[in-house]
Specification:
It contains 15 helices and 17 strands. It has 452 residues and is an alpha/beta fold. Helix 4 packs across helix 12 and helix 14 crosses helix 15. It is globular and about 60 Å long. The strands form 4 sheets. It has a 7-stranded mixed beta sheet, with helices on both faces. The protein folds into 2 domains: 156 residues, Alpha-Beta Complex (Aspartate Aminotransferase, domain 1); 242 residues, Aspartate Aminotransferase, domain 2. The two termini are 31 Å apart. A hairpin with a 4-residue loop joins strand 2 and strand 3. The structure holds pyridoxal-5'-phosphate.
């Protein structure tokens, strides 16, 4: 059995417990299609184990994971500190109801308040612990409703999650339309447009929801000064400024929270920050940080809750993540490596490559054509996991522990990956031969531009 592999997890060339002897990657994919709902499409590979920044598929092939479970596996895979913290907590006290408190839950809330205090969170700030990003935003949505004001503002391109409240805040029509009617009162404003925000703002606005960097919209940074203007306008009208740092938070940009970077946040202090993804480095945990007495007291006794929120194992995972980020100087590492990688990607010359953008280790390659899925597919063939976050953009959100040498492996491989993608794109554009063979099930790329 390989290192870092839990009992019961199928190994390359072996079977799952209760599985059919000799199960192959193709068979796993077929079984997936028979057992799981079709909402994620066809999986690109069946993965069986991970270690550091690498994962292995069911055929034994190794990949450098430059997506980290979509900005989640901050410490890479099977990090020993995370594994032992989770195991120890599960072996001590695995779950209690919210009728009770645990030291891990309380300590995590205190640590999150410490991190928020570095960005100016005042006394009276409070934390609500959830399990996912969408749930954190759902709680923030309910906080907004508790102001008694009817209108909520969000931005075009926004992605805040898939549950009904978070979906109402999400902009993409294809995600929203099948589920109408959604909770009402949400208006989407043009991205980064201060004049539009000023025109929309009023004393009837409960909250403005903003991602400091829009991840799912293609790693798009707000124009300089936008967050400062948003802060001034929301403050003037008594509306909450909610920063969704589910993707950009917990060290991903080289600061605990992206808005702590002066050129991103301009020194603003929000009313609410939502977190998830990297917070537990692979263990599901989300959080809402409410800044100050007003935001901290919007949800009263009995007005919100979730069975697993504050679960001690999830809290232990988050505490271990914060500990390793601090102990190993990962914020500085992310800033240094992110600067280096961005510059290195911008130096690559290829007709398919227009440039690169992003902050820290939340980056995107800008393509000259809608070749994103072809590039992601070619990268996978070459042993790199990336994501076509938009038709013309490739997202990189690797583990924060990625080394320069590992990042360099991708930079070195990139021209050949882009060549292969260009060839595939040209071949796809050519008239189809009469009877082209269907691709093998386990190599068929799913709709790689879909969001989490
Ligand atoms: C900014 C942002 N908010 C919220 C979410 C939803 O998080 P989750 O998938 O954990 O519900 C995501 C997920 O991609 C996100 O990027």
């Amino acid at each position: 059995m390989g290192r870092g592999v839990s009992a019961g997890v199928p190994q390359p060339g072996t079977t799952a417990p209760g599985g059919v002897p000799g199960t192959t990657a193709v068979e796993w994919t077929a079984r997936y299609g028979q057992a799981l709902m079709g909402n994620y499409g066809t999986p690109q590979r069946v993965l069986v184990r991970g270690e550091g920044p690498y994962v292995w598929d069911a055929t034994g092939k190794r990949y450098l994971d430059l997506l980290a479970g979509i900005a989640v596996n901050a410490l890479g895979h099977a990090h020993p500190t995370l594994v032992s913290a989770v195991s120890a907590q599960l072996g001590t006290l695995g779950h209690v109801s919210n009728f009770f408190a645990t030291p891990t839950q309380i300590t995590l809330a205190e640590r999150l308040l410490d991190l928020a205090a570095e960005g100016g969170a005042p006394a009276g700030s409070r934390v609500f612990l959830a399990n996912t990003g969408t749930e954190a935003n759902e709680a923030a949505f309910k906080m907004a409703r508790r102001t008694g004001r009817p209108r909520i503002l969000a931005l075009e391109g926004a992605f805040h999650g898939r549950t009904m409240g978070a979906l109402a805040l999400t902009h993409k029509i294809a995600y929203r339309a099948p589920f109408e009617p959604l909770p009402g009162g949400v208006e989407h404003l043009p991205f980064g447009d201060v004049a539009a925000l000023e025109a929309a703002m009023g004393d009837d606005v409960a909250a403005l929801f903003v991602e400091p960097i829009q991840g799912e919209a293609g790693v798009r940074s707000l124009p300089p000064g936008y967050l400062a203007a948003a802060r001034a306008l929301t403050a003037r009208h008594g509306a909450l400024l909610v920063l969704d740092e589910v993707q950009s938070g917990m060290g991903r940009t080289g600061a605990w929270l992206a808005h702590h970077l002066p050129h991103v946040g301009g020194g603003i202090v929000p009313d609410v920050v939502t977190l998830a993804k990297g917070l537990g480095a692979g263990f599901p945990v989300g959080a809402v940080i409410a800044y100050g007495e007003r935001a901290g007291s919007l949800l009263g006794v009995g007005q919100h809750g979730t069975t697993f929120g504050g679960n001690p194992v999830a809290a232990a995972a988050a505490l271990a993540t914060i500990h390793v980020i601090e102990r190993d100087g990962l914020l500085e590492h992310v800033r240094d490596l992110g600067d280096w990688l961005l510059a290195a990607l911008r130096d690559v010359r290829h007709p398919l490559l227009a440039g690169a953008r992003g902050e820290g280790l939340l980056l995107a390659l800008e393509l000259t054509a809608d070749a994103g899925p072809a590039v992601a597919s070619a990268a996978l063939e070459a042993g790199f996991i990336v994501n076509a976050v938009a038709p013309d953009a490739i997202r990189l959100a690797p583990p924060l522990v990625l080394t320069r040498a590992q990042a360099g492996d991708f930079v070195a491989a990139l021209p050949a990956i882009l060549d292969a993608a260009r060839k595939a794109t040209l071949a796809a554009a050519a008239p189809a031969p009469a009877a082209a063979p269907a691709p093998a099930a386990d190599t068929t790329p799913a709709d790689d531009t879909k969001d989490s």
